[in-house]
Amino acid sequence: MTLNRLHLETSPYLQQHASNPVDWFPWGEEALARARSEDRPILLSIGYSSCHWCHVMEKESFEDPDVAAVMNQHFISIKVDREERPDLDQVYMKAVQAMTGSGGWPMTVFLTPDGVPYYGGTYFPPISRHGIPSFKQVLQAAADAYKNRKEKILETGSHLIEALARVSSGSSSGSVSEETQESAYRALSNQYDAVHGGFGRAPKFPQPVTLEFLMRYHVRTGDPAALKMAVHTLSQMAAGGMRDHLAGGFHRYSVDSRWLVPHFEKMLYDNALLTRVYLQAYQITGADEHRLIVEDTLDYLLVDMRTKEGAFSSAHDADSEGEEGLFYLWTAEEIREVLQPDQANLFSRAYDVTTAGNFEGKSILNLPHNLEAISKAEGIPAAELAEMLTKTRGKLLEVRNRREPPFRDDKVIVSWNAMAIRALAEAGAGLGRWDYVESACQAADFLWEKLRIDGRLLHTYMAGEAKILAFLDDHAGLGNALLSLHEATLDQQYLEATYWLCEEILERFWDQDIGTVYDTASDAETLVFRPRDPMDNATPSGPSLAAELLTRAGHLFNNDRYSQAAVCILNYEAEALERFGPAFGRMLSVQDRILAKPTEVAIIGKEDDEATRSLIQEAHAGFNRNRTIVGKTTGNKGELVPLLEGRSLIDGAPAAYVCQNYSCLLPATEADSLRSALKELKNS
Questions:
Q1: One domain, residues 562 and 586
Q2: What's the pTM?
Q3: Where would a tag sit more exposed on the chain, N or C end, judged by fewer CB atoms within 10 A?
């Protein structure tokens, strides 16, 4: 078997294309120089390892020798893993969207040798259908256009890039206000699906940043409808097929409106972000169903997504044995083969397993009925039913684990790991699950040791190699995670690392001319324009994470430069926030944090001490819109944080100092007294 250049790459996605007959290049100077020297257009193909239609297009087109021959004759073909190079993906996705009105993956873009896009699209079939030209037709047309209409292509492409660059650096004036929050809430209310939860029609995405904003809006205004929308959506997602009811965790999104049929890949970022939202729902409502999902999801991450080094993999594929979702589907007969008849009947009723199936003749496990109703109908006590279902799920999971599993992409991405670290730290501290906190520490230490080289943070790690300069969301996401980890451990090293990350953001990503941040560092590879996208997508945007970090760090370190930079980032997007509020969920939450009175809890404790941990857990209890927890253990000076000045143990016992609006209460040495102090401030 002949291998192309991709076999030298560490990305699993690129490795998957190493045996294609296409003469693939990775993105880099070799490919770009070849295109310029031979005056050949570039075919840029962007995807990722867990993308189902990326696999389909590979089998249909990139493995076809005839298609490969056309590509090799007319183009310099470059394959990119969008998870490795989100900057390239962002630049050329905007170009494709501008040219065609839509985008997605796999993405195919035709470029001039200088990287200027002139045509593109997403999936192209091997044979023309449904109004979509075949991939061969697209190749011939793109090659012909460059050969015979080069001047027109260059002119049109240049105009497009100029327009996209203006959008990326476009100015905004004004300031965000409470009215921004109100208009976003009204827009979400109009989009809300009151029957199934979520927003809009199928397909439905989990949108954790939107749900966080709604819960914050409820806490600020007292509006019960905002909480109802968030909690109902969370409950519907947890009951649907989008959740893996055996191993835990959530799939990427639902292709239908009622959360039944998922797109079966599992992404680290979805599960990390959803964990925090379910935790917040538990903190606000006290409902055990939310707490159980928090633990269920984090346990999945620790069992199925953790690497041997203690970090977290990127994703599980949607496909196994060449079929999407096969790993997760069940027939009624398979259930009966594993369980006793009475167990099989009860499990099948609870989890919607039928002979006909609910998806292509098989069944996606989901909970269409309230278990209390089943308990009453079957005459089985609720506790007994729950115990039986727990046991049967365990038996089925054992059997499922013998199947061929979906491919796991073990690439470690800093920003996605940061989301997992933050979720583990906050849930661990809030629920008293110190094993979660320890796991968060291990992952954070790995990132700090292996992905910070020669004074620079890198973006990704695979097969013992860290590479690619980190992006804004890597720096800001990691900073937020380390602050949360400090709040769970009181460890000073995480504050020192956070300070370094804040300085890196302002030095390398801040643009003084426009007064906000870009997604790439000032010394990163020069692309056709410098990307900056403040809107949230599947993950929170880099600028929103930077605003959040600088807000938190500015208050913690009493650093006006950080706080002012955060406000500048928000104000720069004031007009967009007002017009398209729901697309800026994380920024809206940052704004809400700024609008709230800050609550400060300074804890002076002892290492590995139960009394200290009790205070930490109590400080994390409940939901607070603007809470800062900081601390130190005996032997640490806490020099970076003014809030710690003059704080000490009380008669040798750990103590918590609670302040709000520059007014402090008497120190609390027990969890009960801390709870009372926090309640007093909440009601004041």
A1: yes
A2: 0.96
A3: N
- Please give the structure tokens belonging to residue 242: 């989008």
| pLDDT of res. 412 | 98
Q: pLDDT of 173-225, one tens digit each?
A: 678 788 999 999 999 999 999 999 999 999 999 999 999 999 999 999 999 99
Distance CA 181, CA 634 (A): 42
Helix 268-285 vs helix 224-239: angle between axes, to the nearest 10 degrees?
Answer: 130
Identify the CATH number of the domain in which residue 679 sits.
Answer: 3.40.30.10
Buried residues in 71-102 as b, exposed as e (16+ CB within 10 A): bbebbbbbbbbbbbbbbbbbbbbbbbebbeee
**CA gap 114, 471 in Å, rounded:** 23
Check whether residue 661 and residue 513 sit in a common domain.
Answer: no
Residue type, position 260, single letter: L
Structural domain boundaries enclosing 338: 326-405
- pLDDT tens figures, 465-523: 999 999 999 999 999 999 999 999 999 999 999 999 999 999 999 999 889 999 999 99
Last residue of a domain, one of 369, 389, 405: 405
Q: Is the pLDDT of residue 607 over 90?
A: no
Place of tokens 């203690």: 310
pLDDT in tens, 49-91: 999 899 999 999 999 999 999 999 999 999 999 999 999 999 9
268 with 415, same domain?
A: yes
Pick the last residue of a domain from 365, 382, 405.
Answer: 405
Q: How far apart are the first and last CA of the chain?
A: 73
Classify burial at 195, counting beta carbons within 10 Å of its beta carbon; exposed 0-12, middle 13-18, buried 19 or more.
exposed
Q: Is the confidence at residue 427, as pLDDT, over 80?
A: yes
Task: Tally the domains of the chain.
Answer: 4
**Which among 114, 90, 84 has a CA at the least distance from the CA of 103?**
90
